[in-house]
Design a protein that fits this description.
- The model has no long low-confidence stretch (mean pLDDT 94).
- This protein has 151 residues and is α+β, with helices and mostly antiparallel strands.
- The protein has one domain (2-136): Gcn5-related N-acetyltransferase (GNAT) (Aminopeptidase, 3-Layer(aba) Sandwich).
- It has 6 helices and 5 strands; from the N terminus they run βαααββαβαβα.
- It has a 5-stranded mixed beta sheet with strand order 1-2-3-4-5, sandwiched between helices.
- α5 (99-113) links the parallel β4 (81-90) and β5 (118-121).
- The chain is 36% helix and 24% strand.
- The longest helix has 15 residues, at 99-113.
């Protein structure tokens, strides 16, 4: 498997993975043709050096996993940088093969290489398997997260 930066041609496969679970089905609009907002979002992410949209490509060149890694500059921690992992998804037929672990370990290594002092992520409380997965990789639930959806 190969980890690489996502390309515009990967957007449909990424959105398909984002939509392929009970929570994602309610948030995403995966269809053909793909709504233009996804390609616009990809261009914004791709043009910002503080965001990396990552994919895992199987030996047959199919995209089987994705995550977004963002770097956030803070004044706290003596002007430190935090790395934020978001939107971790594995294609449903490839789950349990180590793709997620490969991606998260890659993201942690990228965070170190960019000088981040911490890697953080959130996972929905309705995903207990995800919580166990991240704990297995050394993440700890140190904070209670909150969200305010703006519609």
């Amino acid at each position: 498997m190969k980890i690489r930066k996502a390309r515009q041609g990967d957007v449909a496969a990424i959105v398909a993975m984002l939509a392929d679970d009970p929570l994602g089905k309610t948030r995403e609009n995966y269809r053909d043709p793909l709504p233009a907002v996804y390609k616009q979002a990809f261009r914004a992410i791709d043009s910002n050096p503080d965001h990396e949209l990552i994919v895992v490509e199987a030996d047959n060149a199919e995209v089987v996993g994705t995550l977004q890694l963002s770097f956030i500059q803070y004044l706290t921690y003596r002007g430190g940088v935090r790395a934020q992992i978001e939107a971790v998804r594995i294609r449903s037929d490839r789950r349990g093969e180590g793709v997620g672990e490969l991606m998260v370990r890659y993201a942690v290594a990228r965070a170190r290489s960019r000088g981040a002092h911490v890697v953080q992520l959130t996972t929905d409380k309705q995903r207990p398997d995800a919580l166990r997965f991240y704990e297995k990789l050394g993440f700890t639930a140190t904070h209670e997260g909150m969200k305010l959806h703006l519609d």
